[in-house]
Design a protein that fits this description.
Layout (H helix, E strand, L loop, with lengths): L5 H7 E4 L8 H10 L4 E5 H7 L1 H11 L2 E9 L6 H20 L5 E4 L8 H22 L3 E3 L16 H8 L7 E6 H4 L5 H6 L5 E6 L1 E2 L10 E2 L8 H10 L6 E3 L4 H4 L3 H15 L1
Parallel strand pairs: 1-2, 1-10, 2-3, 3-4, 4-5, 5-6, 6-7, 7-10
Antiparallel strand pairs: 8-9
Helix pairs in contact: 2-4, 5-6
């Protein structure tokens, strides 16, 4: 891969809020503005701290693009009332994404240890059937994110790109796309062929690295270049689908959260330039 120009970095780099999880939404937006980062991936709990209207106005005033809102989904629940509550929460998430004019609403489909795996996966199918029409009416593109199989028991029963494609196939690509996250997909021996099948379904590309040994299944992600993922190779696969949108740096790591945010931003920009 060729080196990034400073303008290309500005156009493609997106800061996922979880990389600076200690910052409020206004602080994260300010940090992006000061460091010349033109895209941001937002998390709903930070949106709700200030309110959707105020968040939308803040984003509009900043001129920064919202590459994604995270998250919707979380469909499986052992009770009918619980499943309905989750559908209603997805409707609220869609409304938030619409107000923020986000490129997509990320769907982490969910899992429940008390729900058998086949039943949980059917609940995902049923949930998508409920929310996709609502999202289309709102002008919001939904995006399925397959998670690493280690999360199948409690976080997501969607664990491969091909499964995500199967769930998305009944819907138009502009309605339901796929998020490709290096942390979750790098291990797949059929990765190149699976990504190639995504074509117009790619709604977002997230990057971080897999540390060895992995210090924690959730909080142990590394900056690009610190681990074993061949990120430029995966980026080329994603490029080959025709995706030209923002590339989100999403890193769950307490050591980063303990650093001054300006130092984190400098590290993110440098590792993006060198290893993405």
């Amino acid at each position: 891969m060729g080196k990034w120009s400073s303008m290309a970095i500005k156009n493609r780099l997106s800061l996922n809020q979880m990389t600076v999880a200690n910052l409020t939404l206004p602080q994260a937006v300010d940090s992006c503005a000061r460091h010349g980062v033109l895209n941001i991936g937002l998390w709903r709990h930070r949106i709700e701290e200030v309110g959707t209207f105020a968040a939308a106005q803040l984003i509009k005033d900043s001129g920064i693009n919202v590459s994604s809102v995270c998250r919707g989904g979380m469909f499986p629940d052992p009770s009918a009332n619980g499943r309905e509550a989750r559908i209603n929460d997805n409707f609220r998430a869609i409304d938030q994404a619409a107000a923020l004019e986000a490129d997509s609403l990320v769907l982490v489909v969910g899992a429940d240890p008390s729900v058998p795996l086949p039943d949980a996966r059917q609940m995902v199918v049923d949930g998508l059937a409920r929310i996709v029409p609502y999202a289309q009416t709102a002008g919001v593109r939904l995006a399925l994110e397959p998670l690493h199989p280690m999360y199948a028991g409690d976080r997501s029963v969607l664990n491969t790109i091909d499964h995500a494609l199967a769930l998305a196939t009944p819907y138009d690509p502009t309605a339901l796309g796929i998020i490709l996250d290096t942390f979750h997909i790098w291990w797949d021996p059929a990765l190149e062929a699976a990504i190639a099948r995504c074509t117009t379904r790619v709604a977002g590309f997230h990057v971080c690295d897999w540390l060895v040994p992995l210090p924690d299944v959730l909080m142990g992600r590394g900056l690009m270049g610190e681990g074993v993922i061949e990120i430029p190779r995966i980026r080329q696969m994603v490029d080959d689908t025709g995706y030209e949108g923002p590339i989100e740096v999403e890193i769950f790591n307490q050591s980063l959260w303990n650093m001054p945010s300006d130092e984190v931003m400098q590290k993110v920009i440098a590792s993006f330039a060198a290893y993405v």
